[in-house]
C-alpha cells in the first residue's frame, strides 16, 4: 500500500476517534487494524532487498502535518463543545464586569493567530505615563525642585503670604559654608571665628545634639536620616538654626555648646548685631529659600571645592576618633551622592546671583585658609560690612 494512502487512513481514523466520546479505546482499535506505517523509511516494503534506511524528509513533513492537523481539530472540538463546563471545574473570574469565556466571541485557532498578527503591540493597553516616562536624572529632579521653590517664593511675595524674617539682615550677617563631606568646613570655620568674630553653627552638630537630647520627639527620626545619608526634613533643621541664632544674639555670641566670641570682636555683637557661619546648610533649594524668608537672608556662600578621593581619605581618618555613626565608607558614599544631587544646585543658584566665594580646599589647611581670608576680606569690603 502506498505511503500516502496509509497516511490518509491514519488521519481518518484519528479524526473519527477524536469526535467520539470514547476516543482512547476507539483509537487503539483503529490503530491495531492498520498495517505498520513507516513514512520515515525509504526501504521498499515487503522485500528483503537491501536499500537505504535513513529518514525521509517527505515522511517527516507528513508526520508534522498530521500532528498539527490532529491538534487543531481536537482543540476546535474542545473549544466548541457545549458540555465542556460539566467536565472542567473553573474558578469564577473575580471581576464581574469581565464576561466569562463562554460569552466571549468565539474564533478558531487561525482567527486568533490573524488577530494577534494585525494587532499592534500595546495598542489596546492603557498608556501609563509614569511607567513609560524615561527615568529623569537626579540632577534634573533637583533643578525641578529649584524651579518649584522659586515659584512658591514668587507666589508668596505676590500674595504677601511670606512672613518677615525673624532677624534683621542689616544687623545680622549670615554666611553659608558649603562643601562636600570632608571638604574642611569645620576646620576653616574655627579660624574664621577667631579672626572675624563669627559664631559657627553646624547644621549637623545641631541635629546630632537634638538627636541626643532627652525627650526629643525628633531624635529617632534624625538618627535614621543621618545613618542613611539622607537630608533631614527642612522644618526641623530651620527651626534648630533659628533657635540657635536667637540664643547666640541674646547672649552676645555665647552658644549652648560653650563657644564664645573673642574679646576683640565683642563690638560686633552689640545692639542686636551678630555674625554667623552656617556650616553644611542649606542642603536643598527649598531649605535656602525657607531660611532666607523666615530666618534671615544670607549674604553669600563660601564654597569649599574638593575631590571625592581626598574627602574620603579625610573622613576615614577622622572616623578613627570622631565616634560618628556616619563616618564609614557606606554612609560616606551616600553623603557624597546626596551632596552632588541636592546641594550643588544650591551653589549654582547663588553663583548666578554672584553670591559665591569659591576656594579650592585640596591644599594644606594653612594654604586653604589664606585663600579664604583673602576672599572674605574682598567680599566684606564689597558689601561694606
Automatic annotation (TrEMBL):
Keywords: ATP-binding, Cytoplasm, Kinase, Nucleotide-binding, Nucleus, Pyrimidine biosynthesis, Transferase. Residues 317-327 are annotated as: LID. Its EC number is 2.7.4.14. It comes from the Eukaryota. Residues 78-91, 138-151 have a biased composition (Basic and acidic residues). Binds 1 Mg(2+) ion per monomer. GO terms for cellular component: cytoplasm; nucleus. Belongs to the adenylate kinase family. UMP-CMP kinase subfamily. NCBIfam families: UMP_CMP_kin_fam. Monomer. Consists of three domains, a large central CORE domain and two small peripheral domains, NMPbind and LID, which undergo movements during catalysis. The LID domain closes over the site of phosphoryl transfer upon ATP binding. Assembling and dissambling the active center during each catalytic cycle provides an effective means to prevent ATP hydrolysis. This is Uridylate kinase. It comes from Pseudozyma flocculosa.
